[in-house]
Amino acid sequence: MTNVAPAISTATTDKRGWYARNQIAVTPWLFLAPGILFFAVYVIIPIFQSFNISLYRWDGLGEATYIGLANYQELTTDRAFEISLWNNVKWLALYLLAIPMGLGIALFLNQTVTGIRLYKSLFFFPFVISQVVVGLVFSWFYLPKEGLLNAALGVVGLGPINILGDPTLATYGIIAAGLWPQTAYCMILYLTGLNAVDPEQVEAARLDGAKGHKMLWYVILPQLKPATFIAFVVTIIGALRSFDLISIMTNGGPFGSTRVLSFYMYEKALAEFGFRMGYGAAIAVVLFLIMLFFIAYFLFSMWREERAER
Amino acid sequence: MRSILTALAATTALTGAAFADGHANLTGTLKIVSDMSNPAPRAVMEQLAADFDALHPDLTVELEIVDREAWKSQIRNVLSANPPDVVNWYAANRMTPFVNAGLFEDVSDIWGDLEGLDAVKGALTLDDKQWGVPYTYYQWGVYYREDIFNELGLEEPTTWEEELANCQVIVDSGRACYTIGSKFLWTAGGWFDYLNMRTNGFDFHMELARGEVPWTDDRVRQTFANWRQLIDMGGYIEDHQNYSWQEALPFMVNGEAAAYLMGNFAVAPMREAGLSDDQIDFYQFPVINPDVEMGEDAPTDTFHIPAGAENKDAAREFLKFVTSADVQTDINSGAKLGQLPVNAGSSVDADEFLEQGFTMLSENATGGVAQFFDRDFPAEMASVGMEGLQEFMVFPDNLDDILQRLEQARQRIYAN
User: Fold this and answer.
1) Closest Cα of chain A to B99: distance in Å?
2) Do B183 and A250 touch (CB under 8 A)?
3) Which end of chain A has less Cβ packing within 10 Å, N or C?
4) What are the distances in angstroms from CA B73 to CA A272, B16, B66, B160?
5) Tens of pLDDT along B72-130?
6) Closest chain A residue to B188 measured between Cα atoms?
7) Cβ–Cβ below 8 Å for A273 and B379
8) ipTM > 0.85?
9) CA–CA separation, A92 and A71 (whole Å)
10) Residue of B nearest to A61 (CA)
11) CA distance A142 to A30
C-alpha cells in the first residue's frame, strides 16, 4: 500500500470529474473495500466488543451490569484459569516438535524410490482426516483396558497406564494426538520446500567437502527458511486453536486438567452451564493478547523480509 | 424443517374430541421446536404434533426436532431471536435464566384448567407463577443384576449397613459393586444427590442447592465420609473418569459390575444389550440416616411457550393437550417413552420398572422429589460442583481442597 501514487491534482486546469482525477489513489481502496468491510465486521469490531463485554457481568440474556475489571480480578484467583493457561504454554512448547519431526520425515521421504508417491500420501494421510476422528482414534488407542497402547506396554512388561484419566498425563496424551496430523502438515511444507533447493548449491557444497549434518545445517536449512517460517506460523496457530481434540478426547477433564483457554472460554460462556459472557470474554481477551504477541512477531518478520528484498 | 401436514396426521389421530371442544377455531401456524431427538422420543413428538394438527383443521403444526445435547446451548439463541411457539426444556432451576430474562411466557392461567398435575406443580413454579408444563418424568434408583445377587445370595439392601455388607461380598467375588461413567460429570451428581438426601435429608439438600449452607459444613462432610466408604472398598469400577454413561453400561452387561445408580432411561439400552428382565431388577437407594425421610430424584421434562411466540393461543392449547390424562398415558407407555406420566389421572404402563418407580415415588418418597443436581443447583454451581464430585471419586484425599473451592464458588455465585 506504500506505493500508491500521489493523486494528480492540478486543480485549476483539470476539467475532468472527481473520480477520473483521483482514479489512481481511489481504485485500490475500492478493490480493498469488500475485504476491509468484512474483516472489520467479523474480526476487528468483535475484538473491541469482547473487550467491552469483559467489563460486564452478563448471562447473555438479561441486563448487563458494569463491573469494571472485576472479571480480570477473578481470573487472577481462578485456579481453573491458571491450569488452562499453563496447558496453553505446554501446547505451544510441545506442539513445535512437529517442525523437526516433519523435517525429519520430509528428508527421509525426499528420495526417488519406486512408489515414493504412495509413501508420501500415506504419511500425509493423518492431516487429511478430521481432528475429531484423530481424537476418537487416539482415545481408543489410550483406553485403559482395551487400548492398543496398554496392550503394547503389556508385552514389554509395563503399564497399564490410563493416560486420559490421569490429570498429570492427560494433556500430554492429547498433545501427542495433535502432533500426529501436525507433523504431516509440516512434512508436506518441507517436501515442497526441498523441491526448491538449488541442486547447484548442494553440488558446490559437496565439492567443498560438506556432508551429513553440516550440509543440512549450513546448506539445506537456510534454503528451507521460508518453509520453516510457514511451518512455525501454522503450528503456533494450531496449538492455540487446540479445541476439538480436547472436546472429543477428555471434554476438558479429568476435573478440568486438560482445559486450555479457548476451551475454558467456551465452557464459561457458551456451553451447557455457561452463562457468564463477561467472564468468558475476559478469558478471550487474555487469549487474544497471547495471540497478539505472536501475530506481532509474524508481521514484524514478514515486514523485515520484505524490506530486505527491496 | 419438518412440517407435519394435516393429511399425514388424519389416520393416527387420538380419540381427541375431549380436548378439541370449544377450541376448534385455532388458526395459523404453530411452530414447535423440540429436543426429543432420540429415536423413541422423536416418534412420540412427531405423533403428538400430527395428532394436534388433526384435531385443529385450520391450524398447521410445524415441528422442528433438534439434537438434545445441542439444544442445551441453542435454546438461548432460539428464544431471543425469532422464537417459535412451543419449546422443550427442563423443570426447576434450569428455567431460572430464561424466566429472569423474561423469555418464558407466564402460563399460570392454564394451570387453573389443568387437572391432576398438583404433584409436579412445584417444579414448574418460580416466583409463585408457573412457566411451563411437564410431559414426562422418570425415577432414579439402583438397577442391579438380579442373577449376580442370586448367585452371591444377596438381598436388595434397605439400610446402609446392608448396602456396605452386600458391596463387600460383591467386591470379594472380583466384581465392582457399581458401574459409573463420570466423563460428563453429571452421573457423579446423581450419587451426591442420593447420598446427601439420605444422610441429611431432602430439605438440607435443597438448602445446599439454594446456597444457604456452606460446602464446608460438617453435615456435607458426613455425606462425603459415607461416600468414601464405598470408594475405599473398591465399590466403583476403575477409570470411570474415561467413560460416558453409555460406555459404562458394558461393565454391568458383562457382569464386571453388579449395579448402576441411574435413571430409568438406562433400562432400554440394558435390554437392547441382551439382559432379560430376569437379570435386571430395581431397588430404591437404601436408608442411611433413619431420622430423615427419603427424598428421590425424578427429573421432569417440560414444554414452555417463549415470551415472543406469535401463536400463543394455539401454544396454550397444545400445552393442555400434552398434559391431558389420555395423552399422558399414551406417550409414556413402555412402547413409547417408557417413562412416568405426570398426570395423576393417567395409568402407568405394565412394566416392571415403571411400576416399581411409580410406587416408590408416590408412596415412598415422603421427603420430597428433587429434579437432579444439575437442575436444582444454579448452572454455574452445578458445573463447578460436579467437577469437584468427579475429582473426589478419583482422589478422595483431595476432599478438603475440593470443598474449599466449592465454598469459594458458592460465595461468589449466590452473591450475584
Assistant:
1) 10
2) yes
3) C
4) 5, 35, 11, 39
5) 888 988 998 889 999 999 988 888 889 988 999 999 999 988 888 887 888 888 889 99
6) A255
7) yes
8) no
9) 25
10) B101
11) 54
Q: How far apart are the CA of B74 and the nearest CA of chain A, in angstroms?
A: 9
CATH 3.40.190.10 holds for B140-297+367-415: yes
The CATH label, of 3.40.50.2300, 1.10.287.130, 1.10.3720.10, 1.10.10.10, for the domain at A72-309 is: 1.10.3720.10
d(CA B203, CA B286): 18
User: Is it the case that residue A43 has pLDDT exceeding 80?
Assistant: yes
Looking at A40-114, list the stretches that DSSP marks H as alpha helix, in order from N- to C-terminal side: 45-53, 70-77, 79-95, 98-109
Find where cell 500420501 sits: A121
CA–CA distance, B210 with A27 (Å, rounded to integer): 63
Mutation test of the interface with chain B: which of A59, A263, A267, choosing the one with the most B Cβ atoms within 10 A?
A59
Q: Which 8-state DSSP code applies to residue A169?
A: T
Hey, what amino acid is at B197?
M
Question: pLDDT tens digits for B13-26?
Answer: 443 444 444 455 78
Given a contact cutoff of 8 angstroms between Cβ atoms, the answer to whether B242 and B183 are in contact is yes
Amino acid A172 reads Y
Please give, one letter per residue, the 3-state secondary structure of chain B.
CEEECHHHHHHHCCCCHHHHCCCCCCCEEEEEEECCCCHHHHHHHHHHHHHHHHHCCCEEEEEEECCHHHHHHHHHHHHHCCCCCEEEEECHHHHHHHHHCCCECCCHHHHCCCCCCHHHHHHHEECCEECCEEEEECCEEEEEEHHHHHHHCCCCCCEHHHHHHHHHHHHHCCCEEEECCCCCCHHHHHHHHHHHHHHHCHHHHHHHHCCCCCCCCHHHHHHHHHHHHHHHCCCECCCHHHCCHHHHHHHHHCCCEEEEEEEHHHHHHHHHCCCCCCCEEEECCCECCCCCCCEEECCEEEEECECCCCCHHHHHHHHHHHHCHHHHHHHCCCCCCCCECCCCCCCCCCCHHHHHHHHHHHHCCCCEEECCHHHHCCHHHHHHHHHHHHHHHHCHHHHHHHHHHHHHHHHHHHHC
* Residue ranges of chain B whose CB lies within 8 Å of a chain A CB: 69, 72-73, 76, 79-80, 97-98, 100-103, 183-185, 238-239, 241-242, 374, 379-380, 382-383, 387-388, 390-391, 394, 405, 412, 416
Query: Taking residues B271-278, what's their average pLDDT?
Result: 90
Nearest CB partner across the interface for A273, out of B80, B103, B382: B382
Look at A165 and B239 and tell me if their CB atoms are within 8 Å: yes
Query: Looking at chain A, which residues constitute the CATH 1.10.3720.10 domain(s)?
Result: 72-309
pLDDT score for B151: 94
**Local structure of A309: helix, strand or coil:** helix
Instruction: Determine the distance in angstroms separating the CA of A104 from the nearest CA of chain B, rounded to an integer.
Output: 34
The three three-digit cell numbers of residue B340, written as one number: 412416568
Tell me the C-alpha distance between B189 and B372, whole Å: 8
Residue-averaged pLDDT of chain B: 88
- Cβ contacts below 8 Å, chain A against chain B, sum to 71
A162 touches chain B (CB under 8 A): yes
Min Cα–Cα distance to chain B from A248, Å: 11
Q: In whole angstroms, what is the distance from residue A219 CA to residue A210 CA? A: 9
CATH 3.40.190.10 domain span(s) along chain B: 2-137+299-346, 140-297+367-415
- Burial A232-251, CB ≥16 within 10 A → b, else e: bbbbbebbbebeebbbbbbb
How is residue A219 annotated by DSSP?
I
What class, spelled out in words, does domain B2-137+299-346 have in CATH? alpha beta
**Cα–Cα distance for residue pair B111/B319, rounded to 1 Å:** 10
